[in-house]
Structures are given as structure tokens and as C-alpha cells.
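A favour between colleagues. Tell me how you read the following sequence-structure pair.

===
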Amino acid sequence: MISLNLVLAGLRLGLKNRQVGEKWVFDDYSYLCKGLIVYE
């Protein structure tokens, strides 16, 4: 389940990187951290 969550987060990173630019970094890092905390 953890690996799937990381893959989905990675896909979001790639898509948002193209669409939004640099602003995605903070949003997706916080999202990724929340996902990891939930599964730990």
C-alpha cells in the first residue's frame, strides 16, 4: 500500500510540475508527508 501511495504521489508531482511550475513543490511534499505518516 505504501508503494502504491508513493507512485500516485509521484504521478501528481510530474503532472503538477508541467501545469503549475515551482509552486507544486511545497504542496506535494506536504501531501507526501501526510501519506507517509498515515501509513506509518
